[in-house]
Amino acid sequence: MSEHANIPHYDGRLRFVLGLLGLATAVLMWRVVDLHVLNRDFLQHQGDARALRVVEVAAHRGMITDRHGEPLAISTPVESVWANPKELATARNQWKALARVLELEPRALEQLLAKRQEREFVYLRRHITPELAQKVMALEIPGVALQREYRRYYPAGEVFAHVVGFTNIDDAGQEGMELLHDAWLKGTPGSKRVIKDRLGRIVENVESISEPRPGQDLRLALDRRIQYLAYRELKAVVQRSQARAGSAVVLDVTTGEVLAMVNQPAYNPNNRSGLSSERLRNRTVTDVFEPGSTIKPFTAAAALESGKFRPDTPIDTGSGFLRVNSRLTVRDVHNYGRIDVSRVIQKSSNVGAATMALAIKPQQLWDIFSRIGLGTMTASAFPGEASGLLTDHVRWRETERATLSYGYGLSVTALQLAQAYAALAADGTMHAVTLLPAGSGVPDIRQVMRPQIAQQVRAMLELAVSKDGTGSRAAVPGYRVGGKTGTARKVIAGGYSEDHYLALFAGFAPATVPRLAMVVVIDEPQGAEYYGGQVAAPVFGRVMSGALRLLDIAPDDLESLGVKLADVTAPAPAASASTSSRGIL
Ligand code: 59J
User: What is the SS3 assignment for 391?
Assistant: First the structure.
């Protein structure tokens, strides 16, 4: 064969190969266009569905406990079902089954997915049991997945509701201590990288990017046992007297710690559907009222401080009224005539209190009111706390000087009043109130009254709880008690109501060396018994009686129990005075 004869043959083969190459290139080019342009969305989607994802890992929220570690708020793991609406759209035929297992209305599910169709994430149902979560996942519906979350549970229910508060479904504090200490309790969520399969389910945990950091536990100053006792007694009296509302606070006067803080009406924090703010408020800190006669001990303290009065200084309460000016005549319910300062407090004479206040400088009354914390927010930092009102004495005229002395023209919260009584009980040393156990930080202590004056006023308050006082029903067998009643007409449009009252009692025990102070407020008791001495004082007596025993505080009034001093001082076999007396109780 000649070379020439081979050339056309070779030429034809070359052209054939080149043609093949060109065709292959064209096919590849088409495929490139096909994949990158025409099918791009579909492929992207399919790839993403299997891709690495970063998901959040919820952090465990810290527990809230009482002072002894009894749980008041705890977080338990639950599952939440979520979906990628775009993926779920590819499985419309399974929506009915999904709705049924999730116990949702099929229409509601459709509407939800329609509204969120452009999103990649929507919760279908949150906080369900592991069993229900398993059933949902067994359906193997594309785009449906689970997320681990935590649900808050409140074992003490309504008893601690106002103090502890609650979180929302996203585990964020909304009210009370849950809100105030949210940063401490909540922790930091972690994140992890996962691979999800075509159905959006996590098939592999690739790596943890950051571990969730659990929140810290929070211990409160409150004592669960005293809280239950106070709650039970308050609820009973509010029901019995058909009152609108009620509040009570118990303080440790040696530390300022809140041991109990309760309100009516209350609510169940584990089931909060359809709650009104009437039930939600922690009235002991959010609601202010005119303290009425419960302020009189501080008027007496101002009178003693001025040097113009002593406990036995006589005051003429006349025939039960004192005309101050054309706008004000101060009245007493009974006519006491000429009585000393102690009896003014014991019998709760408005005329006596006004007479003392008008005899001293306005600033002297203002000073003591201001020192005991009136008109100033307490250190509790509780969300929604009110400061109350104490106007400046430069603006007081005779009317104000007189009415302020027996508790009108100023306003306080129950917590403020309790703090003031605690200062009186602790010889004038006022400990800033705290809802957390004392002793962690620098103590916030102020001397607001001379110890001797505090003692003199306390002796008057013991008389008020004696059988001849207005507060005799606050007595506690075995213990000496001091306290003051108050019955205050409520302010309504146009003045003071004729038939709407606040029944009050504030006091302390044991009177020898006081340990506890307590305030009781009953808002609008109905019926024949509405005086503070009839409605609020018995609550004080019952709660104090239980609290003193729970705290193992030695009785200081054995004689009231019929125990003769000789019985306990005589050498008894291995029994101390306090234990043998407790045996009788
Ligand atoms: C009272 C008031 C209203 C405001 C009077 C209560 C005044 C007053 C104008 C009549 C009921 C009532 C500034 S009473 O707390 O004096 O607790 O056991 O609301 O006086 O001048 O039908 N408390 N209460 N007064 N206002 N303004 C007594 C007293 C008190 C008792 C009983 C009987 C009032 C001993 C009250 C109690 O100490």
Answer: coil
Closest residue by Cα to residue 156 from 232, 275, 73: 73
Q: Does domain 224-553 have CATH number 3.40.710.10?
A: yes
The CATH architecture of the domain made up of 54-219 is: Alpha-Beta Complex (3.90)
User: How do 218-219 and 64-65 pair as beta strands?
Assistant: parallel
Q: What is the pLDDT of residues 312-332, one digit of tens each?
A: 999 999 889 999 999 999 999
Q: Is the pLDDT of residue 579 over 70?
A: no
Measured from CB, residues less than 6 Å from any atom of ligand 1 are: 292-293, 330, 333, 348, 350, 403, 408, 470, 485-489, 496, 501, 531-533
pLDDT for residue 439: 83
Q: What are phi and psi of 331, to 5 degrees?
A: -125, 145
Judge whether 80 counts as a catalytic residue. Answer: no
- How is the chain split into domains, by residue range? 54-219, 224-553, 558-585
How many C-alpha atoms does 366 have within 13 Å on its Cβ side?
14
Q: What is the pTM of this model?
A: 0.86
| Distances 18 to 12, 28, 74 between C-alpha atoms, Å | 10, 15, 76
pLDDT level of residue 441 (50, 70, 90 thresholds): confident
Query: Which secondary structure element, helix H or strand E, spans residue 11, and what is its range?
Result: helix 3-33
Residue 44 pLDDT greater than 60, yes or no: yes
